[in-house]
DNA sequence: AAGTGTGAACCTCTTCACAGCA
DNA sequence: TGCTGTGAAGAGGTTCACACTT
């Protein structure tokens, strides 16, 4: 099955909300409740669930436990996937700390940096290696996904190494856009752009 | 003029590339060059520039300096906009550090936290206040945009305070979705979702 | 020949409108 | 009545195809 990007994003978010619900002892949830918690519409929620072929018992809302399982079967990799974080500055540490233990099927198994104060230490709970060991470690530890949180100048060469090492997916938090072959899934997030975007649409409101 | 969201994002990115070009002494750039640097197509670049009504002198490529100005007139606020960062953990510090001095028309003028080791200190170059002073400072310093980098549990109440204080735009980096009235422009970025999205599309490739 | 500008087709995503079910 | 599931319409975004300029 080929799910739309936006639906995959929302499913990931729904799942966390559903886990929260279960923790609070709430076993069923209506589409409009889920919608309200995610700033979207009940129709959107139902459409997403329709796309994954999940169906409720009509009047009672969706069964949280069941739905969590269905989403997991779709978006998790069966035996999990290994992740590396490259660049253990504030951003790399923030992501690592946020992430650890949150998603059982995605394990951050290595960190990389060039700073000798970090290399061969444990940073934010993860073993940190020198960037020159990237290729070797990616192969040895079967790492599929890399998160680039290095200084922007380093991003291009890191990306090149990652591709040569057979990485499958890259999440680039750097302000430098990178180039990868078709076969590598690339997601880029540019903070400066996000802030400028907010500024633009704010300005717009000020005017109108 | 009402530009599409995606175009605004790309313009922000083009502008930084153009500044780089100028620094390297390159005064003109073709649509296909800009496209290659941004992983998109020449048509897309030309379409974006068409939307902002900018036109080259045909055969020579686009004038970097001119284009930077045109983009600036469209996406910058004339007298600049003030920004606050709420939560000075790793993520807040990362964003602040990345950002300082990069965009002359967007100034981070205050940081907020609850940790007494941070409050009333200068963190990453920014004055840090206690979150309980949020409302007061937002009004006093004419802050239009807030970046939430607090722990997820705190996001909802921070958002509420921000709205009450008359904030115009919010960038939420927390994994908790927040709710704001129509009049506030909200942009959310969820790291866990981004990583899960990459994992999903990687998995897809492994299968297919 | 090698670039730009753009109408129209296309694809993706969201919303409307409504039938069906408990 | 109050919810779910879904065809069809609509909005937003990208790409095609081609005329135009130097």
Verbal overview:
Two copies of one chain form a homodimer. With 208 residues, chain A is an alpha/beta fold. Chain A folds into two domains: 5-73, Winged helix-like DNA-binding domain superfamily/Winged helix DNA-binding domain (Arc Repressor Mutant, subunit A, Orthogonal Bundle), CATH 1.10.10; 81-193, 3-Layer(aba) Sandwich (Rossmann fold). Chain A contains eight helices and nine strands. Chain A has helices at residues 5-23, 31-37, 42-51, 64-75, 90-99, 134-140, 152-164, 191-207; strands at 28-29, 62-63, 81-86, 106-113, 122-123, 126-130, 143-148, 169-172, 185-188. In chain A, α1 (5-23) runs antiparallel to α4 (64-75). The mean pLDDT of chain A is 95. At the A-B interface, α1, α5, β7, β8 and β9 of A face α1, α5, β7, β8 and β9 of B. The first copy, chain A, binds a DNA duplex (22 and 22 nucleotides) through residues 4-7, 30-32, 40-44, 46-47, 49-50, 55-61.
- Within CATH, the superfamily of the largest domain in chain A carries the name NAD(P)-binding Rossmann-like Domain
Percentage of β-strand residues of chain A: 15-25%
Helical element count of chain A?
8
Q: What multimeric state do the chains show? A: homodimer
Write the element-wise H/E pattern of chain A from the N-terminal end onward: HEHHEHEHEEEHEHEEH
- Helix amount of chain A, in percent? 40-55%
Biggest protein-protein contact in the assembly:
A-B, 65 and 65 residues
Would you identify the regions of chain A where 5 or more consecutive residues have pLDDT less than 50?
none
Q: Could you say which structural class the secondary elements and strand pairing of chain A correspond to?
A: alpha/beta
């Amino acid at each position: 099955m080929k799910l739309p990007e936006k639906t995959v994003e929302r499913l990931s978010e729904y799942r966390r909300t559903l886990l929260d619900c279960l923790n609070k002892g709430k076993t069923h949830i209506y589409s409009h409740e889920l919608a309200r918690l995610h700033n979207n519409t009940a129709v959107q929620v139902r459409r997403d669930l329709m796309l994954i072929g999940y169906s409720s018992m009509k009047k009672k809302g969706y069964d949280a436990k069941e739905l969590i399982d269905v989403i997991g079967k779709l978006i998790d990799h069966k035996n999990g996937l290994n992740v590396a974080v490259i660049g253990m500055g504030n951003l790399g540490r923030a992501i690592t700390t946020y992430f650890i233990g949150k998603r059982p099927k995605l394990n951050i198994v290595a960190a990389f940096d060039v700073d000798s104060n970090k290399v061969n230490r444990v940073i934010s709970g993860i073993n940190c290696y020198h960037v020159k060991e990237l290729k070797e470690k990616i192969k040895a530890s079967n790492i599929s996904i890399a998160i680039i949180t290095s200084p922007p100048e380093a991003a291009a060469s890191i990306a090149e190494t990652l591709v040569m090492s057979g990485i499958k997916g890259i999440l680039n938090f750097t302000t430098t856009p990178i180039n990868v072959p078709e076969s590598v899934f690339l997601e880029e997030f540019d903070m400066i752009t996000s802030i400028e975007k907010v500024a633009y649409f704010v300005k717009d409101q000020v005017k109108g």
